[in-house]
Amino acid sequence: MNLLIMGLPGAGKGTQAAKIVEKFGVAHISTGDMFRAAMANQTDMGLLAKSYIDKGDLVPDEVTNGIVKERLGQADIKEKGFLLDGYPRTIEQAHALDAALADLGIQLQGVINIEIDSSKLLERLSGRIIHKETGETFHKVFNPPAAGYNENDYYQREDDKPESVKRRLEVNMAQGDPIIAHYREKGLVHDIEGDQDIEIVFSDIDKVLSNLV
């Protein structure tokens, strides 16, 4: 089974990806893992990526696409299938992935799209607070400190502040929407309601995937 998993930050993509891998035995491929492995194994694309990273430059799309294709060509993918997580990030990468899969003779069978309203994600992602003295992490809504806590004793990282989170979600939506539309045209997208208990979300995913096997 060859799959993509998509969803905005905070939608629970990582949690569900782990459950899919455990249940269906596919290879979990994340971009970070791919880069680390390619560089550690000193593949052609890994060495090229390292040359950019060492200079502090962004790795160009063609190198990222090459690393993905290199990984998808390995023996375990043919044997087990894959769940691709964190790629493609742009519509250009989606077209490159289509071409790579065609070259490798691999067929994509489904795109799991975990959907949650962005306002709920904003609440999830911007609620994290950190105790100034202990460094302990809490969440204003889901894991608050003791009742009547003093807000002055806590701080938020810049990345967790509502304006930063809102910007991040907007960027992700602008990049992700065309990718979802692209795969929807191919009849591959399965929308999953993400604002449910983790086990219910996985049960919905399980039903979809069990029909693809």
Task: Characterise the protein shown here.
The longest helix is centred in the C-terminal third of the chain and has 24 residues, at 162-185. Helix 1 (13-24) crosses helix 9 (198-210) and helix 4 (61-72) packs parallel to helix 6 (91-104). 26% of the residues are buried. The chain has one domain: Rossmann fold, CATH 3.40.50.300. The mean pLDDT is 93. It is built from nine helices and eight strands. It has 213 residues and is α/β, with parallel strands linked by helices. A hairpin with a 5-residue loop joins strand 5 (128-131) and strand 6 (137-139). The strands form two sheets. Strands 2-3-1-4-8 form a five-stranded parallel β-sheet, sandwiched between helices. A three-stranded antiparallel β-sheet has the order 6-5-7, with no helix packed on it. It has helices spanning 13-24, 31-40, 44-54, 61-72, 75-80, 91-104, 118-125, 162-185, 198-210, and strands spanning 2-7, 27-30, 82-85, 110-115, 128-131, 137-139, 154-155, 189-193. The chain starts with a strand and ends with a helix.
Question: Could you give a short description of this structure?
Answer:
One of its GO terms (molecular function) is ATP binding. Catalyzes the reversible transfer of the terminal phosphate group between ATP and AMP. Plays an important role in cellular energy homeostasis and in adenine nucleotide metabolism. Helix 1 (13-24) crosses helix 9 and helix 2 packs across helix 3.
